[in-house]
Structure formats: C-alpha cells, structure tokens
C-alpha cells in the first residue's frame, strides 16, 4: 500500500510539473485527510507562472465535491479571519503558495471521506481559458 502511494505521489509530481510547462506549473500539492464526522477539507499547493503575463486562478472543480472555494486568512483587529476570494492572481514570472494561514482551497460537502495514501483529481481553471488537471495526494492528519 505504501509503495503504491509513493509511486502515485511521484507520478503526480512529475505530471504536475509538465502540465503547462510554458506557463503554469503546480507543485507540492496535497489535500488533507477528512476529520472523522466532517465533510470539509482543505488543499494546498504552489502555483508558478513562468510566462510574461499575469494569470488568474478563477475556480477549482473536482468530482469529490460540488463546492470548492478559494480562501485566504487575513488579520483583522488583531484576530485571524478566513474569507472567500473570487480569484488568485499569479504575477508574471512569480509564484503563489497556497498554504495554511494564507491562500488555500476549501473543499465543502465531500461526498465520501478522504483517506490518507489515496489521491484525488482537481481541475484548476484560469482566466486565459487554460484548465490544469492535477492529481492531489491525500495527506494524513498530523
């Protein structure tokens, strides 16, 4: 089982680096395993724009949920607050890291629990009409 997960994770990374080699690359992607009794998870990754134009991530879709949103954490009145954002801009020749306590992806109403050592498929939709399909390993709770 662990060998299968390692092979899947390695293939996922190799595929994600090559998806839009001229424009957008996706790396270090993972989604958190479901907490028992919940239907919410979160996903993280690094988006690198290797083009000379800004690109905007406008939405994410997956067959695991009909409701996937982009969020960010902001500090308001000395309190950390999470809020939904409509898009995430990746400037030319730059990268954006989706990570805990920053930009991230929220997955609501997961149709079945996400289990560690499996993978899910997500499609990233960009304003330049490019769709990037990535395999995302499910990372166990720590």
Describe the fold and architecture.
With 142 residues, the chain is mostly beta strands. The chain has one domain: Sandwich (Immunoglobulin-like). Strands 1, 2, 3, 4, 5, 6, 7, 8, 9 and 10 form a ten-stranded mixed β-sheet that branches. β4 and β5 form a beta hairpin. The protein is globular and about 45 Å long. The two termini are 19 Å apart. It comes from Thalassotalea psychrophila. This is Copper chaperone PCu(A)C. Pfam families: PCuAC.
Outline of the structure:
The protein is mainly β and 142 residues long. It has one helix and ten strands.
Alpha-beta classification: mainly beta
Biggest sheet record: 10 strands, mixed
- SSE sequence, one letter per element: HEEEEEEEEEE
Radius of gyration using CA atoms only: 15 Å
Percent helix: 10-25%
Rough outline: globular
Q: Which homologous superfamily in CATH is the superfamily?
A: PCu(A)C copper chaperone
Q: Termini distance? A: 19 Å
Average pLDDT reading = 87
Helix segment tally: 1
Low-confidence stretches: 13-21
- Tell me the domain tally: 1
CATH class membership: Mainly Beta
Name of the CATH architecture: Sandwich
* Strand elements, count: 10
CATH topology: Immunoglobulin-like
Strand composition percent: over 45%
């Amino acid at each position: 089982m662990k060998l299968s997960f390692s092979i899947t994770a390695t293939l996922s990374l190799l595929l994600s680096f090559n998806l839009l080699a001229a424009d957008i690359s996706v790396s270090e992607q993972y989604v958190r395993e479901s907490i028992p009794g919940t239907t919410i998870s979160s996903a993280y990754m690094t988006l690198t724009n290797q083009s000379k134009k800004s690109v905007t991530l406008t939405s994410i879709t997956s067959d695991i949920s009909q409701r996937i949103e982009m969020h960010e954490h902001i500090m308001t009145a000395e309190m950390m607050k999470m809020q939904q954002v409509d898009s995430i801009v990746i400037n030319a020749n730059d990268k954006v890291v989706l990570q805990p306590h920053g930009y991230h992806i929220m997955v609501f109403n997961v149709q079945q629990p996400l289990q560690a050592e499996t993978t899910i498929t997500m499609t990233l939709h960009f304003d330049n009409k490019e769709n990037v399909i990535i395999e995302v390993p499910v990372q166990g709770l720590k």
